[in-house]
Input
Amino acid sequence: MNIPILSLITFLPLAGALLLIFLPKENKNLLYGIALSLAVVVFLVSLSLYFGFDAQADGPQFVEKTGWLGFGIQYHLGIDGISLFLVLLTTLLMPIALLSSWSYIQDRIKVYLIFMLILETGIIGVFISLNMFLFYVFWEATLIPMYFLIGIWGGKRRIYATMKFVLFTMLGSLLMLVAIFVLYHLYYKATGTYSLNIFDYYQMLLDPKLQTWLFLAFALAFAIKVPMFPFHTWLPDAHVEAPTAGSVILAAVLLKMGAYGFIRFALPLFPNAVETFLPVLSVLAIIGIIYGGLMALIQKDIKSLVAYSSVSHMGLIMLALFSLNVEGATGAIYQMLNHGLSTGMLFLVVGILYERSHTRLIKDFGGLSKQMPVFSAFFLVALLSSAGLPGLNGFVGEITCFFGIFAANKTFAILSVSTVILAAAYLLWMFERVMHGPITNEKILSYKDVNKREIVYLVPIVVLMFWMGLYPQPFLRKIEPSVARAIAGIKSATKVFVQKPESVPAKFKIPEGSAGIR
Amino acid sequence: MTDVFWLIPFAPALSSVVLVLFGSKLSKKWVSLQACGAVFLSFVFALVAFLGSLKISPDNFPIVKTLFPWIGAGSFQAGFSFQFDPLSAVMVLVVTGVGFLIHLYSVGYMAHDTGYTRYFAYLNLFTFAMLILVLASNMVLMFVGWEGVGLCSYLLIGFWFEKPSAAAAGKKAFIVNRIGDMGFILGLLFIFVAIGSSEFSAINKAIGQGLFPQALATLIAILLFVGATGKSAQVPLYVWLPDAMEGPTPVSALIHAATMVTAGVYMVARLNLLFTFSGTAADIVALVGALTAVFAATMALTQNDIKRVLAYSTISQLGYMFIGCGVGAYAAGVFHLYTHAFFKSLLFLSAGSVIHALSGQQDMRKMGGLRKYLPRTFPPFLIGAIAISGIPFLSGFFSKDAILTEAFAQGRYFVWALGLAGAVMTAFYMFRLIFLTFYGEERIEPEAKHHLHESPKVMTVPLAILAVFSIIAGYIGLPAVLGEKADLFKRFLEPVIKPPAEGHIGAGTEWLLMLVSVAVAAVGISVAYLFYLKNPRIPHALVARLPWLYKLLYNKYFVDEIYGAVIVNPLVKGSDWVYGHFDLKVIDGALDGSAAAAGFFGKALSVLQTGFVKDYALVFLLGAVIFIGVLLF
Output
């Protein structure tokens, strides 16, 4: 019998959360011990996905599929080269996030850990679901723990931030829900069977007009999540208020759900609409790159600066994805992982500072490098990774993205390359004001350098940054074939529609106002 | 023998990693030994590879060694691979040879600094990155070195980061370089998309086969040259280099004189076929180089900080190297790069010895008459000054003259004239520096005078060695009048750099040009003598006569201020305005407004205290119910 690895890594955290309910809330060591060791076990188990994954094989792998539960709902899991690494990123960062919470979270530890574990289940579920119903349930399920994490353990304006976060996200996902209904209905009308299987939907050929509406519904949900300009304003608020671990997971993994949604659903399902809206989306992505960078430049709060840098970085990822070529999309996926590591680590670093100073305002610091030299080194590596310094992971992703964008549209590429200047400017200027210069704030003299626990959770990220920057082949080799297939799927579907209606073969004819089967 | 070339970069890398991870546990002695030893090992490898390459027939270059496939996505492929040919040989010898001497010197110069280990970790890392830059066989890997040296430059300029000016200078250097890097990246992308590779051999082949339309070649070459103006501090991106003098003086010698700043020249020489093919791009290179050579020299005339004079001098000399490349005399450009590495690092290290002797004093107004106190620093300093001024029989004369002669021979009289104007100023400001520092009345502050001491041997021995090379390095590139085969350097580089086809001038003209160069240098030195030794009132009278000119030069044409007012300030202020008015008001305002209009936001807010989540859970449940409801029908 094969071990259902995907189910195992998805539901082990949930099982852990259930277990924690029955444990005494005073025993911090026990609670953390269980949550942490579980998260580590999940990570180790998920590693087997990497080794067992066959890059050349077509279709999803590690598939788990039950019979129909009725009405097309099916327990259907599987991964390809795209979701593989997003799952690994999640399982890697969860124990790190938990470890970073040890001294940060002081009250209601038990509830906190329960929410973190539920969050992990939700996120992994999103990346591995191949059934639309399942996907939607997991998608929404990530919202609830995140809501509590910010709402309970957040900063002063946490209520406002959570409201904004939930309102934005819900607006998008409700529209997506409606769109899923329509797809479901159309599929039934065309074939007479119920299905929510994403591969069945890939076969569907929709009326271009209808596609437009459905695409917009999906795209909005995902664009808010990414977030793309102009739907980004919830992000800085959510980040500033969220506890460190919340910010780490939010930036590193939750945002990737949006980009993932585009490549898995929005782009392949509605090829015509994609053709129409790609220029608009690309322009929004470019605005996001430059706008995010300029806004990051003038932020006074370090977390909000990193949040805006995320808007800029995610803009580049989306633009590369929208170039719809293998290089751009592979770069985008790789850059998602890089962004997860670099931004995740930046938030960890800011969290370490906050625990010592209880402030995140740039003006409260200065001269920290003298007081905390080891910390300074970690901070610098995270920052350089984020700025795309060659030799570190960010560069490999960035240059591959640039190449893909350039091959698709030179003007877009020229505009997007400006990010190398902007990123250096806002990051180094912040670093100068926080870490360099004389120590002016006396309190800084009492700050301690990073402790062993902090080093333990930062080192794996640093190692990965160097590894992915110097020897990215083990990653790219597994990502690229899946991306190539996904892009080919989107492109071939687009081609059918590029032809004039009379030249479309009969079997591709679209029934007026309904769905056809490809 | 040459096969060992791929090992050249790794000893400093390893040493740097060890210093970063275990530096706190190592003794100072061990740190010095390891850091210098690693670079010396690289030098030995470089020497072995070079000697081996002498026996290799020109057609077999470059020798390529691919260590492993690096980036690969679709048609975007780049290997972690090195190449070796005569041009790389020159570069690795300069980097490891001069680099080793500067490491050695640093042992003395940095002896009392608390950041001793950190310093050598950075310096080793720099050496590694620089070697990657000159050995990379493709432009993507070259960019790793290109940015790597930039990072080390940032770290070392800001080495004394508690000093706000040092921290700011480091940041400025990195960001200004990034502006150039944008050009580099775009040039790289244009090349890659056009020919499907960024290997230098593939680029050269493609040019041979005519795969680049001329307009495209020009565009690419100009974009890459933008990158070069950043790294090699040319107009308009030179502004970071004078500020870079905030770093320790040996760093200024190694990074901001001998090696890193020549990376742009190296790149242009490496892609000489592209620049020559474009024609227009080469003309721009020559023009920018000539303008920079003069412009920077004028700024050097009035500076009082001994290191700043040398910094502007470096910018100016880099301009000469670009003149050489631009007029087609790439070999002469590289030749000047090579001689400059000796005499300019000599000048910086001697200046460092002076600063060291005066307990950190850099202002020449507080020096004077030092030659009797610094008997082992003064002669090398003087040799460096003579070499850079273009006095015959020292290295600088041969290389600068090769450039100017070629500019004249190619009919680029304007460029030649600018170069000559720069030369007279060079001789002037160098001897102004010598006279102010070592001659005349003593203006040393009492406290500094009390501690005044000559530097230790570990510092003065490298000075002596560099002084010897500043004298003899030029003899491998003698002028053509002395025989067809006199220019060994040019012939050595021929597998990489084809000499310009036309534009030969007669022996008589060449002798005359040489005479003009020497005369110009003599004039510069004489004026400096007149101004600063014979009759020191003249400069004061001149300042009183032309106060605006002095102010303009002394304040470096206010370029930093103009950049600040025209670019930096509007960007920051504008972003601030947009943030307040657009992000916070328009977008969020629309959200808050529409939510309020829908009566949702206010209500949700009010129920939040009692538990908004219950509401949310309700909505979620409702959604699920509707979902299942629809499924049923």
Summary: The first strand of chain A starts at residue 61 and ends at 68. DSSP finds 21 helices and four strands in chain A.
